[in-house]
TrEMBL record:
CDD domains: VL_LC_FACS_like (cd05907). It comes from Streptomyces prasinopilosus. It comes from the Bacteria. This is Acyl-CoA synthetase. Keywords: Fatty acid metabolism, Ligase, Lipid metabolism.
Length: 606
């Protein structure tokens, strides 16, 4: 591979991830690279880049002693903890291929992945995970022969993780490290499986580095920026943002192993960048709105005025225009006096780049955050495109509600039926087959059919409609985007989640879920006392009347085919642990429809 050209006197980008780690250890040895919570819960343990190189070298020797070699797949099922991050890099330095598995994966999914990638070794977090994986050791159809268990004292009959670094590293071992080539597999990422079995997406060093370079060209960030890592490493977004881009940028990763501690970690770290899938931004917006509602009326009016100024300032930037001096001055004053103190309470006062991806972002949520001076740069891409294929950008332009324009490593076009197609340097090699081969998914000209439907405007911005396979076709032959309808319904704070149903039906119905944070706050503000019981709230006449009004208001903004005629209000939030959402918080529509089949049938009863 020809190294990427250097700019501004900087050396060319190394062509593989191990060479990037080596470069960081030499050029920035003392710069913080990785931090995680101390075992006692107080403070952070931090490794600099020189220590990362040294530690991953010792780990690589430990894995090699277990028989792991170049090209071998190794399965990893852990939270976002140091052992996961460091093992990933250690295996890559060895020339092996790390494969992270979602902690919420069902046993049949784990079995499918283990068989598909033919891994002989799995590294799991503790006794619970070991109990799920252990039956595969006796499964003759599965190549798995050994488990490594990370949590001390929970290994049982399996190898403790600590044993990997006990033996001295042979003097000649260094010659076995960092020899991977640009076109060697860097990882296999299994799709999260909204439908069907997970598919193994093979990504090479070349493809990952191409995407990293393209993203750097689109975003504006200080050097060596902090990143809070909380999404699963089995998701392409966190692999790029939490492993590959920090290596590429020699930046600083903070590991947040407990996703419920994200807000507290943000307040402590005060990062310069923050990525959240839409559901994260929705939940944060609910929390901020609830806080604003508690302010004295005069102070609340002051915040609302500041937010109006911020939105006007963003609107000029969105149009590509320079805000007039008086607006610039007003915004600077409002930001310093009103907005920054609000953002500081949540740890977002230093943030310079915020983004979202994975699913269509509700426009009202984007507009809300723009009123706080935070422009969420919505992006779009697939595991198969090594993550981001299009993005909004403060550098190259943005349109709120769109997913931006293609990054420099890809081209995007529309097929005749409106399906988005992508080709370029960061499009994947293909899907891993059980015999070890890789099946390409692009056509003869290199175009990948993404399964997403959308449009491209005259300025090159991409606007998503929905997943092609999730489009609803009514009995009258009309096409409806469920995401459009669902996001419109969720604009009311009481409605936290929504699923629209109506394939081959004459009208749409919906399952609506009360927001567990916003609903009690709304109830308290309106004198509804149910003791915090969400089920009682969902049945309360005042709540039902308000949701009726919310659905009616949403219907006024939808065309006749898109309008929801009936709905069922639910109290229990959908989540990954209960199976209705993927680990990246996308809806598993089939699961939800199956579990609520009786309610959906009743909604169509005359």
């Amino acid at each position: 591979m020809t190294p990427a050209p250097s700019t501004a006197g900087e050396p060319a980008t190394p062509s593989t991830l191990p060479l990037i780690v080596e470069h960081n250890a030499r050029a920035h040895p003392d710069r913080p690279a990785l931090s995680w919570r101390a075992p006692d819960g107080t403070g952070w343990v931090t490794l600099d880049w020189a220590q990362v190189r040294e530690h991953t070298g010792r780990l690589a020797a430990g894995y090699a002693a277990l028989g792991v070699g170049r090209g071998d797949h190794v399965l990893l099922m852990m939270a976002d903890r140091s052992e996961h991050w460091l093992s990933d890099l250690a295996l890559v330095r060895l020339g092996a291929v790390p494969v992270s598995v979602y902690g919420t994966s069902a046993p049949e999914q784990i079995r499918h992945i283990a068989r598909n990638c033919r891994a002989a070794l799995a590294v799991v977090e503790g006794a619970v995970q070991a109990g799920v994986w252990a039956p595969l050791l006796d499964d003759t159809a599965t190549p798995l022969t050994r488990l490594v268990v990370v949590e001390p004292g929970e290994e049982g009959p399996h190898l403790p993780y600590a044993a990997l670094t006990r033996a001295p590293v042979p003097e000649s071992f260094g010659k076995s490290l960092d020899t991977a080539g640009p076109d060697d597999p860097l990882t296999v990422v299994y799709t999260s499986g909204t439908t069907g079995e997970p598919k193994g997406v093979v990504l090479t060093h070349r493809q990952v580095i191409a995407n990293a370079l393209a993203l750097d060209a689109a975003v504006e960030l200080p050097p060596h920026v902090e990143h809070i890592c909380y999404l699963p490493f089995a998701h392409i977004a966190e692999r790029m943002l939490g492993i590959y881009l920090p290596c590429h940028r020699a930046s600083h990763v903070y590991l947040c192993a407990d996703p419920t501690a994200v807000a507290a970690t943000v307040r402590e770290v005060r990062p310069r960048q923050f990525f959240g899938v839409p559901r994260i931004w929705e939940k944060l917006a609910v929390a901020v709105r609830a806080g604003l509602a508690l302010l004295p009326e005069e102070q609340r009016r002051g915040v609302e005025k500041a937010m109006e100024v911020a939105r006007e300032h963003v609107a000029f930037r969105e149009r590509g225009e320079t805000p007039p001096p008086e607006l610039e001055e007003a915004y600077a004053r409002m930001r310093e006096e009103v907005l920054q103190p609000l953002l500081a309470a949540g740890g977002l006062d230093r943030v310079t780049w915020t983004a979202s991806a994975s699913a269509p972002m509700p426009l009202d949520v984007v507009r809300f955050w723009s009123g706080l001076g935070i422009v969420i740069m919505d992006a779009w891409g697939l595991t198969e495109t090594t993550g981001v294929a299009t993005t909004n950008s403060p550098r190259t332009g943005f349109r709120l509600g769109s997913v931006g324009r293609p990054v420099s490593s890809v081209e995007v076009r529309l097929a005749e039926d409106g399906e988005l197609e992508v080709r370029g340097a960061s499009v994947f090699s293909g899907y891993l087959q059980q015999d070890g081969s890789v099946r390409s998914a692009v056509d003869d000209d290199g175009w990948l059919a993404t399964g997403d439907v959308g449009r491209i405007d005259d300025d090159g911005y991409v606007w998503l409609t929905d997943r092609k396979k999730e489009m609803i076709i009514t009995s009258t032959g009309k096409n409806v985007s469920p995401a459009l309808v669902e996001n419109t319904l969720k604009e009311h704070p009481l409605i936290g989640q929504a699923l629209v149903h109506g394939d081959n039906r004459s009208y749409l119905v919906a399952l609506l879920v009360l927001d567990p944070e916003a609903a009690p706050a709304w109830a308290a503000a309106h004198g509804v006392d149910t003791g915090g019981d969400l089920a009682a709230l969902a049945a309360h006449p005042a709540v039902r009347a308000e949701v009726d009004r919310a659905v009616a208001a949403a219907n006024t903004r939808l065309n006749r085919t898109e309008q929801v005629k009936r709905y069922r209000l639910l109290a229990r939030e959908w989540g990954p642990a209960t199976g209705e959402l993927t680990p990246s918080l996308k809806m598993r529509r089939r699961v939800i429809r199956d579990r609520h089949a009786a309610e959906l049938t009743e909604l169509y009863a005359d």
